[in-house]
Amino acid sequence: MEGCAKFYVDADEDEVNVKTGTLVFGCGKSIETNARNLMQMQTLKNLIEDAGLDLAIPIVNMSYDVFLIVLQYVHQTRRNSERISSSHLLNEWEHTFFEQVCRAYWQEVLQASNYLDVPHLRALIEKAIALELKQCKTVVEIQNTLQKQHLLTKEEEQQVAEEHAFIRKAPLKQKNQTIKGLPLFSFWGATTKMYTYLWQTRKKKKENLLTSYQKKKHAHKRKKETLLTRTLPGSDMSTRLEPSGPS
C-alpha cells in the first residue's frame, strides 16, 4: 500500500517470518505494524481472529496520532512486561511515558484504550490523573488538571444553584435578626438552640414512655389483685384465693 508508514515491524526472537497488519484511518493515512502488537489490543484481536490479516483494518473512532501512542505503549510493554506496575502508584517508566507521550492527549488516549480494550494503558492514565487530583486544593486546580474550564453545563449549574439556594444568605440588616427563632448572627447560637431542642424533645419522649410504662404497670397490678380477690358464695367475707399446691 502506497504511503503506508511502518512502525515496529521488527521480528521477535522466536519469529522467522514477521506477520504484519495494516490499519487505515479516516484521514487517509495508514500504518503497518507487527501483528503481535495488534494482538495486544483485544478489540483488534477479535477482528483479526475473525477476518485475518489479508485485508486492511479500518480505524474510524480515533486519530492517527492517538493510535500511534497506543501502539507505542503495547509494543514497549510487550517487549518488557516488567514495565507494567501492579500497584496503585506509577513506576518510573510509566511516569516517564505519561509525561513525555500521553500528557497532551491523555483524554483521547484514555478513550482509545477503552475502545481498543487495553486495560493496562487505561489503568496507567487513570492512576496518573488520580494522583494529580489528589494534590489539587482548589476548583481551578482541578479544572486545569482535567483540562476543562466548565465541568457542568449551564443547565446543571442552574439546577445545583436552585438545590443549594439556602447556602446563599442575604446580608443581615439587624444583629438579632432571626429565622424561625434561630439567631443568624451566631452559628454557635443556632447550634446551641438546635441541640437544646433535640435534648428537650428526647427528654419529653423519655418522660412520656416512663409515664406510659407506669400506667401499664399500675393497671396490671390492679387487674392481678382483682383476679386474686373474690367473694365466696353464701358468705359476707372476702377471701383471697391462694394458688393450691400439691396435697
CATH superfamily of the largest domain: Potassium Channel Kv1.1, Chain A
Number of DSSP helices? 9
Cα(first) to Cα(last) distance is 116 Å
By CATH reckoning, the class of the largest domain would read: Alpha Beta
> Order of strands side by side in the largest beta sheet?
1-3-2-4
**Chain oligomer state:** single chain
Beta-strand segment tally? 8
| Proper CATH architecture of the largest domain | 2-Layer Sandwich
Structural class: alpha/beta
CATH topology of the largest domain: Potassium Channel Kv1.1, Chain A
Cα-atom radius of gyration: 39 Å
Notes on the protein architecture:
By secondary structure, this protein is of the alpha/beta class. It has two domains: 4-153, Potassium Channel Kv1.1, Chain A, CATH 3.30.710; 168-227, no CATH class. It is built from nine helices and eight strands. It has helices at residues 35-38, 42-51, 64-79, 92-102, 106-116, 119-135, 139-146, 154-163, 187-228, and strands at 4-7, 20-25, 30-34, 57-59, 178-179, 182-183, 229-231, 238-240. Strands 1-3-2-4 form a four-stranded mixed beta sheet. It has a two-stranded antiparallel sheet with strand order 5-6. A hairpin with a 2-residue loop joins strand 5 and strand 6. 12% of the residues are buried. Residues 172-179 and 231-241 have low confidence and may be disordered.
